Amino acid sequence: MSTSAILLVGGKGTRLAPITNQIPKPMLLVAAVPFTEHQIRKAASAGINEIVLATSYKAELFEPYFGDGARFGINIKYAFESSALGTAGGIRNAAELLSPCDQVVIFNGDVLSGHSLSSQLKFHKDNNAEVTLYLTKVEDARAYGCVELAADNSVKSFLEKMENPVSNLINAGCYIFNRNIIDNIPKGKVVSVERDTFPSLLNAGTKVYGYLDNSYWLDIGTPAALVKASADLVTGVIKSGATLEHTGDRIISDTAVINSSALINNGSVIDGEVIVESDTQISGSIIGKGAKIGKNCKIIDSIIAPGTQIDAGMVVISNYLGF
């Protein structure tokens, strides 16, 4: 069966403002590369040879970086929404650019996961499913759409955010649609895959299955989660084909100037042209290009914007500065 993919990267990332005022969430650096690169590499490593990026906010920033996808081993195309069409509307719009295929993997643009996409695709095929949702288990499902599974792993119900969830299984942001399912989504209309498409598919008796995988999963939609995702990739808590080769628990650009007495660890990323002065500690943090960190500073679990100057003696903990 031939498989293509759609990556939903049109969101503004409002929970990450003001970090996302100039750069869309999917283009923010996570372990020194744009977050979207981690997902593109994941698709390519599962044997997918075509992916359409469904863009909207700051759409012009994607193609200059990713190009035609040749250096990632996958053919990349770009769909654009002049006004947001919702998740399903965005999928329908992007599908116009797909080459003929049997099934389509849909990625949410803000989820870092360690789940096996190859295993999900095999599960989809083995169950002769029309739709397969990647599910994961959480302690508290109130902030997410929760899913009820039958004994055979078919989906009994898909329920949006609710105060008393009937299940602790959630839609983890990667689903497989048979190609014809997408063709039935209304074209050019605002449609939500969670509120509209999934419930209507279940009502119509569509074969919808849930693929449960409880490996690493993180929604990167907040500054704290973004920092955690980056540090976890650098320290190897989760693996990605996009993470740059490095030694130890840090990534430091060749053009950064680091004083020998500075301590940089716990998954920190130091971008190009950064200056770090003496007796400064940087732990689990992302330091943007051209930033200057003074003497005797302590920066922990934080993000420092490109070009920002941090004065001597400053302590920055779980914060973001310069945006």
TrEMBL record:
Residue ranges constituting the Glucose-1-phosphate adenylyltransferase/Bifunctional protein GlmU-like C-terminal hexapeptide domain according to the UniProt record: 246-316
Cited SUPFAM superfamilies: Nucleotide-diphospho-sugar transferases
One Pfam short name: NTP_transferase
InterPro entries (UniProt xref): GlmU/GlgC-like_hexapep, Mannose-1P_guanyltransferase, NTP_transferase_dom, Nucleotide-diphossugar_trans
Ranges where the Nucleotidyl transferase domain occurs: 5-233
Keywords from the named record: Nucleotidyltransferase, Transferase
Gene Ontology molecular function: nucleotidyltransferase activity
Descriptive protein name: Mannose-1-phosphate guanylyltransferase
UniProt organism field: Candidatus Nanopelagicus abundans
